[in-house]
């Protein structure tokens, strides 16, 4: 279905470095990046342009724009967001969405990777010593830093520092103008940790692409629902642990249920709301 077809990767931040090898090897596609493609118009991590669409709508729009610009009917795009983990509060997380669109065969497949492997952080800087400690913590210069004036109404952002001397010099030059904030630069080409998460998300996307419906052979047959109710080994009452995964085809809506996906048929009493309320 895909061998020999051209596939556009909608990026201006070098994500093709990790996406291309995976998709070309497994799908036989020929990946390329569009010239002069501006993904920043849909929002920037540095704050100059706010993202107005949801994360999934942004990644879909990004992919479709690249496909239209290059007149290509096969595309991939990614979009990340950063903040507190939805369940592990106070733990920063990288939430990556990848989308695969095949207009020729009317296919859209989305994959998501939520990871705590991130250096996402921000801090008010009151001295050169604090800036040095922050830079060490976020692994500068392999991972880049952004400086902002907290009280600036002009949205000034200082970025792309290559070394400590450049960072220190800029800090001292803007320090007298207001409160300085230091943040991690989350653009993929400036953040190897994020790039690794994008690579993992691409692998997840690939698994979905090559997973075919057993009825109609349509790509993207994947898990759409998790069913709880794994019985407690002591009282046999249902727990909140996963009993089954439900997979569904996007085209013919065929569903299948995989019981005991984690390899166990009963749950330990310590995870039972009845035995361990």
Architecture overview:
- It is a single chain.
- α1 runs parallel beside α5.
- The protein starts with 5 loop residues before the first strand and ends in an 18-residue tail after the last strand.
- The chain folds into three domains: 6-118 and 192-208, Maf protein; 122-185, Dna Ligase, domain 1, CATH 3.30.1490.20; 223-271, no CATH class.
- The chain contains five helices and twelve strands.
- It is flat.
- Helix content is 25%, strand content 27%.
- The model has no long low-confidence stretch (mean pLDDT 93).
- The chain has a five-stranded mixed β-sheet, with helices on both faces. The chain has a four-stranded antiparallel β-sheet with strand order 6-9-7-8, covered by helices on one side.
- It is an alpha+beta fold.
Q: What is the CATH domain class of the largest domain?
A: Alpha Beta
Distance between the termini: 52 Å
The proportion of residues in beta strands is: 25-35%
The CATH topology of the largest domain comes to Maf protein
The CATH architecture of the largest domain is Alpha-Beta Complex
Class per helix and strand makeup: alpha+beta
Main pleated sheet? 5 strands, mixed
| Strand tally | 12
Given the structure, what is the number of helices?
5
What is the mean predicted local confidence, pLDDT? 93
Cα Rg: 23 Å
Element order: H for helix, E for strand: EHEHEEEEHEEHEHEEE
Shape: flat
Helix coverage percent: 10-25%
Summed up, the domain count is 3
Strand order in space, largest sheet:
2-1-3-4-5
Low-confidence stretches: none
């Amino acid at each position: 279905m895909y061998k020999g077809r051209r596939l556009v990767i909608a990026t201006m931040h070098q994500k093709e470095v990790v996406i291309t090898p995976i998709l070309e090897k497994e799908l036989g596609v020929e990946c390329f990046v569009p010239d002069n493609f501006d993904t920043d118009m849909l929002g920037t991590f540095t704050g100059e342009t706010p993202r107005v669409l949801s994360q999934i709508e942004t990644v879909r729009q990004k992919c479709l724009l690249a496909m239209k610009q290059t007149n290509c009917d096969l595309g991939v795009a990614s979009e990340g967001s950063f903040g507190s983990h939805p369940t592990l509060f106070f733990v920063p997380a990288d939430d990556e969405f990848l989308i695969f669109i095949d207009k020729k065969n009317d296919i859209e497949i989305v994959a998501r990777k939520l990871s705590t492997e991130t250096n996402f952080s921000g801090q008010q800087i009151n001295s050169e010593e604090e800036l040095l400690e922050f830079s060490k913590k976020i692994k500068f210069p392999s991972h880049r830093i952004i400086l902002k004036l907290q009280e600036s109404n002009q949205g000034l952002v200082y970025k792309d520092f290559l070394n400590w001397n450049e960072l220190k010099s800029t800090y001292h030059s803007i320090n007298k103008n207001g409160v300085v904030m230091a943040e991690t630069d989350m653009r993929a080409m400036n953040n190897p940790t994020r790039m690794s998460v994008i690579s993992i998300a691409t692998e997840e996307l690939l698994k979905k692409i090559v997973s075919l419906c057993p009825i109609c052979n349509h790509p993207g047959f994947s898990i759409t629902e998790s069913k709880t109710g794994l019985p407690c080994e002591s009282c046999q009452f249902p727990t909140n642990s996963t009993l089954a995964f439900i997979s569904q085809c996007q085209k013919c809506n065929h569903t299948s249920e995989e019981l005991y996906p984690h390899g166990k048929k009963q749950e330990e009493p310590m995870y039972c709301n009845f035995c361990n309320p």
